[in-house]
Write the structure tokens for this entry.
Amino acid sequence: MEPKMDLKAMDARIKTIRSSAEELQALAAEFPALNRNTARILASVKMLEINLSDLADQGLLP
Amino acid sequence: MGVVPKKWGPYWNPVMETLPHDKIRRLQLEKFKKIFAWSHERSKFHRGLYEKAGIGPQDIRSLQDVRRVPTVEKSMMRDIQRKDPFPYGDALCVPLEEVSEFRQTSGTTGQPVYQPDTWQDWEWWAECWAYILWAQGYRPTDRVFLPFGYNVFVAFWAGHYAAEKIGAEVVPGGVLDTQARILKIQELHCTAMMATPTYVLGMADTARKMGIDPVSLGIRRITCAGEPGASIPATKRRMEEAWGAKVYDHAGATEIGAWCFECEAQSGGLHVNEACFLVEIQDVETGEYIEEPGRRGKMVITALDRQAQPCVRFDSKDIIEWAAEPCPCGRTFRLIRGGVIGRADDITKVKGVLLSPSAIEEVVRGLDGLGDEFEVIVEKDGDIDRITLKVEIVKGREGERSRIEGQLKDQLRLKTNLGYILEFHDYGKLPRYDVKAKRFKDLRKGH
């Protein structure tokens, strides 16, 4: 694995992005352009979680 | 100011792909619990299956417990579909309006099965393919040509989106015919492509007929999927020689996902993407689960994050075995030796001997002087099985027929333990297939 990657900091940012995107999606319930684009952002956030946060949440980071 | 090219490492996910295996297994268990609970809660079909078996999410505490969860077969999916919520039926786990993609299986084993995906599932498809392409050396500097139909079969759709995701440039060759595709590759200096082995060889043949040496086209890497071939050494060799390119295998399925891939090390196996899939191997005869390398069995697989129509302990009928040695690439994702060796429903008994069609392919394509195409016909002559192998001699090599025939007989006996009626045909006389081939025809009743 590449040295010097701050995985915990990355995980924290992923959680922040999810939280912000979910808030925006809720705010934009009547704004299709924002609502639907945010849904796509959340799908991408899920990929970030699959790639790192799922490990972090189980205490399995190297 | 010029752009400084980034120096990328060999792994799409350097954390997951080198994680110690005990941690991968712990992650798989936790993720299995979640997808099992998801399908139990949201799919009437899955819940019915689990209630009948007397198992629920609270019962899964170990990977051993996972084995108690009933498996799902393709035929079960056929039975519940074409009903409400239309057309997916009771296995749909999301509201219909969240389904953004429809695909279906190719129907080679029966009525097609429909596959719904949400946008998140579609991103997940591309993510799984990104692991594949990165492992096979694709990088943002590649220009990737996709010569497939872009239709209701999932085929290389996710390969297209994954190539975009990793930063490469994609040239969609959908509506072009084979000649036009070859000219487009030449025109644009494409560096990589994805296709079935049948089409890779077919394109090379077409290029030569156009007076173009496929090696001159500049394709340096080819990802194959859709049928066995790229893990059959003789077929891989033919493709690599034809194109002057490295050819890599990948196995996936519409109802499963893109679950395994060959890496640049080409060490004779395919890595299971163990971050995204839980693969179990089950002895076909005894039902025993196989952990040790070197024993073949059928694959039972779970896609750990697929939501619209989950794949939970799907009995794929693919025959695989774990490899004994780790891969020199450094990935801790386990290898399956030789890729998908065959299918439980393809392997058949002829004259009392178990026969896998891929063994015949290896012999035919391993022989210098024989063309790429062949056909196998199994029939009954009274009570006795008869197997005929039709082959083509390469143009200009007709004088070597006696030598070739001798070698063919010997190799077939050695590799398949059977004697064949051999038919030699002029080059170009046997059927050509466009995308996926059906070379093995069993005409016996009940087959």
Q: What stands out?
A: The interface with chain B takes residues 1-2, 5, 7, 39-40, 42-44, 46-47, 50-52, 54-55, 58, 60-62 of chain A (CB under 8 Å).
